[in-house]
Amino acid sequence: MQVPPTEKPPGSSKRSGDRTSVTVRDVARAAGVSMITVSRAINTPKQVSPATLEKVNAAVQALGYVPNLMAGGLRLSRSNLVAVLVPTITGSLFSGMLTALTRSLEAKGYQLMVGQSGYDTLREDALLRAIIGRRPDGIVLTGVMHSEQGHRLLKASGIPVVETWDATSTPVDMLLSVSHEAIGDAASRYLHQAGKTRQAVLAGDDERARLRADSFVRTATRLGLPEPVSRYMPAPTTHAQGREGLRQLLSEDRRIDAVFCSSDMMAAGVLTEAAVQGLKVPDDLAVLGFGDADIASSMSPSISSIRVDGAAIGLQAAEMIAARAAGQWPAAPVVQIGFQIVPRESA
């Protein structure tokens, strides 16, 4: 889905995307000291008294200020650099987004810097500080589950930010929204329509996977089904976790007839274990994955999966960042990204 950028009308009021960065002057004002004192506190803290250092640090934390690491040398008005943070670069879930983002940005004269944040907010905060300090022309984030400090850093930076693969009513700046609650709901209904009445869910322990799993369980109970058995595994999920997860699910309820997995790799593990257990797929056990990875179509039986168009996310994010860098604003700062269930042999 393409959203045309629009020029900001002269003299118009501030919009959600019209953000300015926190400066040394703002920190000095908040701390009640001079700008040179703030500079010393940040660059040579031993030259500042402990009391003054404490005041400056408190102001820095409250405002989310990050020093400009490029300020000491030759600096152009644009860096021609865009940073993207993804939880993992293993597997193929985010590969479509990264490929499309790279190609689209290169065509516009930008280079992409990729950071792997894992599923740890402290690690994400550290990466955000390093990235913001280099003042890229834009930041693309996977998800919206940022810490309070991370959210403050992003807001204070004044850098165009596109959050992706998640939904929120309070985006930092721009948002390519994916509803994981809607995905979980659709998964349970799909399996129910296939005649599966004793559903189970096997998910990673990250926030987005949990949103899908929780929604899946709620929908199943609303449909009048027994509450699905749930198991959570450390993210990113693996084939081995799929095998172990199915063993655990069957140990609790041997009658389960469908499993919704938070990744196709985990779903592949479930298929392997189902064969070991002598279960026929999909007659005895239907399996539904997420991500529509390459392995989904190449497995035997092939894996039914839920597809989110990562390439569309990458292209749209690039358009948003490039427009903002050119002084333009997207007509819609929040864009809904849909999903589709891809039926195959496993369900």
Automatic annotation (TrEMBL):
Gene3D superfamilies: 3.40.50.2300, lambda repressor-like DNA-binding domains
Chain segments carrying region Disordered: 1-21
Family annotation (CDD domains): HTH_LacI, PBP1_GntR
Protein name: GntR family transcriptional regulator
GO molecular function, one term: DNA-binding transcription factor activity
InterPro entries with a match to the protein in the record: HTH_LacI (IPR000843), LacI/GalR-like_sensor (IPR046335), Lambda_DNA-bd_dom_sf (IPR010982), Peripla_BP_I (IPR028082)
Keyword Transcription regulation appears in the UniProt entry: yes
Signal peptide boundaries: none
PROSITE patterns: HTH_LACI_1, HTH_LACI_2
Top-level taxon of the source organism: Bacteria
